[in-house]
Amino acid sequence: MASNVNPTVRRRRLGQELRRLRELKGMTAEEVADKLLVSQSKISRLENGRRSINQRDVRDLCGVYEVQDQRVVESLMQMAKDSRQQGWWHAFGDIPYSVYIGLETDAASLRVYEPQVVPGLLQTRAYAEALIGGALPETAHSDIEKRVQVRMRRQERINSGEAPLRLWAVLDEAALRRVVGDRQLMIEQLEHLVEMSHEPHVTVQVMPFTMGAHPGVNGQYAILEFPDAADSSVVYIEGVTSDLYLEKANDVQKYSVMYEHLRAQALNVDQTRQFISEAAKSYAREHA
What we know:
Elements: H1 7-25, H2 29-36, H3 40-47, H4 55-64, H5 70-83, H6 98-106, E1 109-114, H7 125-135, H8 141-154, H9 156-159, E2 166-172, H10 174-177, H11 183-197, E3 202-207, E4 221-225, E5 234-237, E6 244-246, H12 249-265, H13 269-287
Helix pairs in contact: 1-5, 2-3, 4-5, 7-8, 11-13
Organism: Streptomyces solicavernae
Protein name: Helix-turn-helix transcriptional regulator
Domain HTH cro/C1-type: 18-73
């Protein structure tokens, strides 16, 4: 199997297929758990792709679901084997949001709303260092550097010439006004933001303070979509100790509609570039 197999996406696809087989059999997760003498939570984690799955688990589940076609069983077991490979991010050790990185690596498009900071895929290295250091004051410098390296590696998805990630970012004005590092660093970050907005696959919009209340006041979120129709879209909401992944069609639809309202209310692309440039000039005047 090729080394570029994405284990996170393999787990999702495998989990979706196992859920489909269970539902075809007309069984609940609790019934399956009772038959295999495991917890119901294990079955749920296997189906949502959050837990690594081995070939024995697949074989046992196929037995419970009475899958007769050996080719189907072998295909699922191969997916289980692939899902246990390591993605590029594993080389950096324990990354808290590794599931998200796996999804982002395989996504075709990403829509993100950021109310406080510049989105990670559009950050300069200096901004990322200052931001992570400020957000995690008790973290060792080596761990901060590791996180920065991961963030820079993630940016290869939008800098790559081959099928780059389609990124649409709506930022609250607060992300431009919050001084991360110092004013010179902010000038460089905002100039980088304008530069990236000229990429054909990158769209940046700003939601100004003057807009008042809007659909994004509840906080940050991202919507990931994938090139394979078999992979459902995912809404990602970052947390302090744990993250939330929403995959139900109704949930994704609600967040998608909310994002359309955000895009409609935010400054358009040209207005955004002018707005960001003016913010950078204001930092330059203060820095002078």
